[in-house]
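Posted in: Structural Biology > Protein-Ligand Complexes

Title: Requesting predicted complex, tetrahydrodeoxyuridine in pocket

I'd be grateful if someone could produce the 3D structure tokens for the following input. Sequence and ligand are given below.
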Amino acid sequence: MTTPRADLPNSAGLIARARAASARAYAPYSGFHVGAALAFADGSVVTGANVENASYGLSLCAETAAVAAAMNAGHRGGLVAVAVVGGTSAEGGEAVCGPAPVTPCGRCRQTLSELAQLGGTDPLVWCVAGDGVLELRLSKLLPHAFGPANLD
Ligand code: THU
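-- Reply #1 --
Done. Output follows.
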């Protein structure tokens, strides 16, 4: 793992948006709140939080919820950065991050990659831990990604 960094100058605002989104998680089963914030080249930001279900396997992750919101807002590319904040919390509370950064799950990596590939970007992904931030390119999280071009 890359050494977590606490001093990324351009990441603080996006991380704050992800943290705020985590308070809107519906996660009564895991008690694990995740917020994601997507930054676009036009300056806009779209957020999402995880949405669980009594049929546990149907739960939606924050990153996937954020991508769905962004696509429904008309975004088809231009994804330049992603922030993910996760940790335990009570209903209505922001995530309290643990020592390990929350990295997007495999499905979310693929979902983020679709939106990124539409615009030909390789977004920075900021994964927040209690005492720092892990910064990675999406292509590092999901090398050799399958995508739209594979269907040509
Ligand atoms: N979760 C996310 O929202 N994003 C991730 O990348 C990992 C996991 C959610 C799913 C579930 O609601 C909770 O965290 C515990 O796994």
